[in-house]
């Protein structure tokens, strides 16, 4: 699954995930599509840690992320 958009200041963004990256796995299992990734992340609780596998500029990576509570409204730029 290719990253199209990412929220600035999200754990994934802070860890270096960027638009254009290919997400290949979550918690050791393959990610099949965006819906699969969203469903699996949604099943996690704030504070849970999970490993995300991907590729950036043809280089594989694995990063450990801590799940945060999803904001109920967007943050506005000033």
Strand proportion, as a percent range, falls in 25-35%
Low-confidence stretches: none
Radius of gyration, taken over Cα atoms and rounded to an integer in Å: 12 Å
Overall pLDDT: 89
Major sheet: arrangement of strands: 2-1-3-4
Overall number of strands: 4
Distance between termini?
A: 32 Å
Shape call: globular
Order of helices and strands: HEEHEE
Helix count, per DSSP? Answer: 2
Largest sheet: 4 strands, antiparallel
The share of residues in helices is: 10-25%
Structural class, by secondary structure, is alpha+beta
What can you see in these coordinates?
It is built from two helices and four strands; from the N terminus they run αββαββ. The protein is of the alpha+beta class and 78 residues long. It has a four-stranded antiparallel β-sheet with strand order 2-1-3-4. A hairpin with a 2-residue loop joins strand 3 and strand 4. The longest helix is centred in the middle third of the chain and has 9 residues. The mean pLDDT is 89.
For this entry, give a set of tags.
single chain; 78 residues; four-stranded antiparallel sheet
List the helices and strands and how they pair.
Blueprint: H1 11-15, E1 22-26, E2 29-30, H2 34-42, E3 49-56, E4 59-66
Antiparallel strand pairs: 1-2, 1-3, 3-4
Q: What does this entry show, briefly?
A:
By secondary structure, this protein is an alpha+beta fold. Helices cover 18% and strands 29% of the residues.
């Amino acid at each position: 699954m290719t990253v199209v958009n990412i929220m600035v200041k999200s754990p994934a963004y802070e860890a270096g995930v960027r638009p254009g990256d290919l997400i290949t796995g979550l918690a050791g299992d393959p990610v099949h599509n965006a819906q699969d990734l969203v469903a699996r992340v949604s099943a996690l609780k704030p504070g849970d840690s999970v490993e995300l596998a991907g590729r950036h500029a043809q280089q594989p990576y694995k990063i450990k992320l801590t799940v945060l509570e999803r904001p109920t409204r967007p943050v506005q730029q000033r």
